[in-house]
Amino acid sequence: MLIRPDNREANQLRPVNFQPGIAPNAAGSVLVSFGATQVICAASLEAKVPTWMKMQGVKGGWLTAEYSLLPYSTLERKQRDIAKGRLDGRTVEIQRLIGRALRAVLDLSKIDGYTLWVDCDVLQADGGTRTASISGAYVAAQLAVKKLIAAGKIKETPFTDSVAAVSVGIYQDAPVLDLCYIEDKDASVDANIVMTGSGKFVEVQSSGEEATFGADDLQAMLALAKDGLQTIFEAQQTVLSGK
Predict the structure, then answer these.
(1) In degrees, to the nearest 5, what angle opens at C-alpha 115 toward C-alphas 112 and 118?
(2) What is the DSSP letter of 80?
């Protein structure tokens, strides 16, 4: 019998919350919480594009993301990347994932000449920081776009769809949704699912932790993710509608 550390059902998300306006100097910001996991996501517009776009003659604008675990976000203090003089592989992987996820629903031609920066800083890590970052980054970027349109810096929204992400896995031989840290640490299979509001996959990251999994397991995890993501999309829309 499945017993989750926080007594949730297998298909139950942790409480999800988006608190807008957490970073007043950013064009758009939100504190996103998935249970005890908390991430500040902030979006800013810069009036230039990366050098490689100019050199290759690529038209339009760009979106890029940065991600970091703050030193006090984990049980043991995490050393800042700047103190090590380099980004660790996990940080690079996650910020690239966040950038890919948002660019999948962005018409870059509508921010011609601009770079939209999205910074994701983890205040507290209890599993699912990359998926919370993606879900929060979309909200922060949308809030920024609304402000930038109102200020006349861009003409119309560049977003073509919404995007969110959630973790799933096999824990105690059962597919479960939205893994907390204990579950993530002990899961035999771990997966991160990124989808658009229209139901298209952006990315499916799935791996066995010294274990294998079958097609039925994958289908069960995807079904859990799709259901959970609908709840996240609704929470995003509630914040963006100002309710």
Answers:
(1) 140
(2) P
For 206, other C-beta atoms within 10 Å of its C-beta total 17
In angstroms, the CA 181 to CA 184 distance is 5
Cα three-residue angle 56-114-81, rounded to 5 degrees: 85
Q: Phi and psi for 55 in degrees, rounded to 5? A: -65, -35
3-state secondary structure of 27: coil
- Taking only the tens place, the pLDDT of each residue in 174-213 is 999 999 999 999 999 999 999 999 999 999 999 888 789 9
Residue 48 DSSP label: -
Please calculate the CA angle 82-35-185 and round it to the nearest 5 degrees: 65
Going from the N-terminus, what domains does the chain have, and what CATH number goes with each?
A: 16-240 (3.30.230.70)
**Is the overall model pTM greater than 0.70, yes or no?**
yes
